[in-house]
Amino acid sequence: MLYNKLKPFPDDFLWGASTSAYQVEGAWNTDGKGLSVIDMMNHSTESADFTVASDHYHQFKDDIRLFHELGLKTYRFSIAWTRIIPNGTGEINEQGLQYYEELIDELHRYGIEPIVTLYHFDLPYTLQENGGWENRDTIAAFVNYSRVLFSRLGKKVTYWLTINEQNTLILHPGAVGMPKNGELPSKKSLYQQNHHMLVAQGEVMALCHSMCPQAKIGPALNMTSMYQATSKPEDAIAAHNWETLRGWSFLDLATRGEYNYLLWRYLEERGWQPKIEQGDLKIIKEGNPDFIAINYYSTATISESTGEKSDVMPRAGDQQIMLGEPGVYRPEENPFLDKTKYGWIIDPVGLRLTLRKVYERYSLPILISENGIGAPDQLNDDLTVHDTYRINFIKAHIEQIQQALTDGVEVFGYCPWAAIDVVSTHQGYNKRYGFIYVNRGEFDLMDLKRVKKDSFFWYQKVIESNGAIG
Ligand code: BG6
């Protein structure tokens, strides 16, 4: 739809930026922190590990001062479960609680609204050793951990996110690293884990509402739209298959508390249905989110798969690069769209479409909790970083958010990935996303100095003008 005049961004629009604990903090074994699955995974020997990351744990005050200079209205970060309860259950680590309390106080001192993710990929390793999310006991562990946070930080935090990208954890577990034994869980196990996460999430959302009545809580999923490759009806079915299995089925559960019929048939057909105990569905249903957070990076184009093995692409997939599944969907190239250096399709208009679809389906306000472009930025001798590609990427996406707002979609915040350079989930340090450059290499930690990129100064103006970037 074309408009003569676009709606302005609301005055209280939350302009922000994101990070996650294990990708930014470092200090992997400091001040009583326990080991997480991330600390114990086999990471590629060609890229940085997470032990030091961006050293935000030690430099958070200086970083927040820079976030203030950038003009952030909000900062989305995650809490490392293993700093709070080092073994997942049992003893609480006061130093961990103090750290996040200070961080939140520092944000408030600058008038920056904290958006806190409870869990962003870094499950305590002790829980993993006992079966991780496949073990039902992890539900109680997550609820207990969340209770500790709500009780200590509840008065200081308005926005909570439950689980970051549950769909990535279930559909692309390898994107977050390989277990030491080199074996990813079976699909049957993954869908059982999925079910337990949903029960845990349902309980935690209800708990949040009872313990922190002023707070708002929602899930954060990796959402995208699927285009059908041609007008062939079978391609439309395939695109619908994958859009449902990858996105809708997760959101249907998180928001409506219902197993999507198509997901259920897909699971039944393969013998992958989870064991559902009495009362589980009630708990999932009673955990009503106040909003939906979406991480949006790209879209995919899909054609019919007639079941041939060759419908799986001979290349590495990750949370954004679709691989294909015989009999379900086959990924195709999209001749209208470019890709990043890492093969992720760049599709700003797809963001508008995804926002519309999510809003139409669930009628809940939407927070864009991630969106960004990974690139091997170069630091120049004069301490500049000319990341024009990032400015272009974010500008084009902000324009589409404004289109979506004009369409009538309720979007209340935008938190690009990332506030500052962080370690990528599986592609090292030099795949950078931040507005702030961190002077370190893949392995050489150098001086970890912070340098404002061109995108920093540009985003600062965007925020100052409340999105008037045209
Ligand atoms: C999202 C994750 O899927 O994508 C982030 O929530 C991640 O943790 C981001 O960093 C970018 O992906 P990557 O793999 O390039 O780090």
Question: If you had to describe this structure to a student in words, what would you say it looks like?
Answer:
- This protein has helices at 21-24, 56-70, 81-84, 94-109, 125-129, 137-153, 166-171, 187-211, 233-256, 261-270, 280-286, 348-362, 388-407, 454-464; strands at 14-18, 74-78, 113-119, 159-164, 216-222, 226-228, 292-295, 300-303, 330-332, 366-370, 411-414, 436-438, 450-452.
- The chain has a single domain (14-464), classed as Glycosidases (TIM Barrel), CATH 3.20.20.
- The radius of gyration is 21 Å and the shape is globular.
- 50% of the residues are buried.
- The strands form three sheets. Strands 1-2-3-4-5-7-10-11 form an eight-stranded parallel beta barrel, surrounded by five helices. Strands 6-8-9 form a three-stranded mixed beta sheet, covered by helices on one side.
- The chain is 38% helix and 13% strand.
- By secondary structure, it is an alpha/beta fold.
- Helix 6 (137-153) packs parallel to helix 8, helix 8 crosses helix 11 and helix 12 (348-362) runs parallel beside helix 13.
- The model has no long low-confidence stretch (mean pLDDT 96).
- 6-O-phosphono-beta-D-glucopyranose (BG6) binds next to loops.
